[in-house]
Q: What sequence folds into this?
């Protein structure tokens, strides 16, 4: 993961593991996550100090067409637009493993 720009949209259940992997591997990437300030992984992305791993962020408001599912997912009842705000985060853990 270290030598690539990773594109990541993990399921909620593995966001903490994904952020941990990025940190351990000193990796960079674009991470798509919900704006969930009470989540256990939030402080790893947004520490109280100014030198956190998030370089840029794009807020994706909850809207009907924010995300579009492929046809098979829609047929299975998946692919509904989220009812929460999402963030696209450009992250860089390469500068420090202790972040």
A:
């Amino acid at each position: 993961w270290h030598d690539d720009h990773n594109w990541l949209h993990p399921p909620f259940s593995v966001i903490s593991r994904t952020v941990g992997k990025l940190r351990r591997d000193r990796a960079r990437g674009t991470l798509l996550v919900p704006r969930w300030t009470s989540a256990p992984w939030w402080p790893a992305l947004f520490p109280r100090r100014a030198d956190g791993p998030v370089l840029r962020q794009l807020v994706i408001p909850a809207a009907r067409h924010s995300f579009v599912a492929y046809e098979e997912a829609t047929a299975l009842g998946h692919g509904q637009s989220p009812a929460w705000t999402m963030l696209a985060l450009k992250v860089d853990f390469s500068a420090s493993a202790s972040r």
Remarks:
- DSSP finds three helices and four strands in the chain.
